[in-house]
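Recall that a protein's primary structure is simply its ordered list of amino acids. Everything else, from secondary elements to tertiary packing, is in principle encoded there. The following example makes that idea concrete.
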Amino acid sequence: MSIKSESNRRDVSLFARFIKYLQLMYYQYEVTFSAYVLTPGEKIVLNTVLVTRAAIRLAWLYNGIDDKFMVNTVNDTASAWREMRQLGVMGGGLNGMDY
């Protein structure tokens, strides 16, 4: 590497480095999720799913909800299903077999 190219690298503005970083992140996203082979409509669906998942994750982290909440929710749901089955509100499972 020549001295001239090193000095040019240091002279690049913070904004230009940030733009270059964003371009690199976009390239990594395209390669990681194989988005470069999708049609524009498929990219919209993929981006919507990814942004939604990230927003939900950030909301959970921001609100401080931990995994105990999910475990309790799953346990409460399972007990509610069992209770409904015992009361005869629900039939058996697939092919008449109980779960």
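The mean pLDDT is 75. The first helix runs from residue 3 to 11.
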